[in-house]
Amino acid sequence: MTQxxxxxxxxxxxxxxxxxxxxxxxxxxxxxxxxxxxxxxxxRSCPLAEVVVELDPDGLVMRCRGCEHQLLSYVWAGAVRxxxxxxxxxxxxxxx
Length: 96
Ligand SMILES: [Zn+2]
Prior knowledge:
Blueprint: E1 2-4, E2 11-16, H1 18-28, E3 36-39, E4 45-47, E5 52-56, E6 59-63, E7 70-75, E8 82-84, E9 88-92
Antiparallel strand pairs: 1-2, 2-5, 3-4, 3-9, 5-6, 6-7, 7-8
Bound molecules: zinc ion (ZN).
């Protein structure tokens, strides 16, 4: 689903967390789609694959499906890649 972003009018795709798996594996070196993430705002825990991802050509934003707060942002435009964790309380990766 594509809808205009209210602040900028840019078009962003709203997808599930699987869309973040590839880009985040560039930073973390592992597939995080099965990782359990916890929202700092509402304490909801779920697999990363279940969060809302807003994706555009310059980066992505992950939002909590429970409260819509921003969990993580990753911008890869230009020479610098920047990851921020404004609403991520935890990230748990299991070996199996
Ligand atoms: Zn939340």
